[in-house]
Amino acid sequence: MWNHFQNSNGVPTDGKKHYFAVYFMNALEGKTVKEMWHKTAKHEGICRINAIFEKVGTDNQPIPPKPADDAGKEKPA
């Protein structure tokens, strides 16, 4: 399924398909997270978790646009 959601660069191409990226590195004895993840720190690996966001109850169909609010406008005679 990984390749189904990802293009060759590892980034989804469809607007509904997204991913969460988790960057990681091995912990060094006695160092805090803030000390390890400084501006020039390099991660040792990355894990991408695929996600597809869909609205419940829409059967994966686009939601129709809302009608214009004409309540406060005068109608021509």
UniProtKB/TrEMBL annotation:
Residue ranges, compositional bias (Basic and acidic residues): 67-77
Region (Disordered): 57-77
Recorded superkingdom: Eukaryota
Protein name per the record: Uncharacterized protein
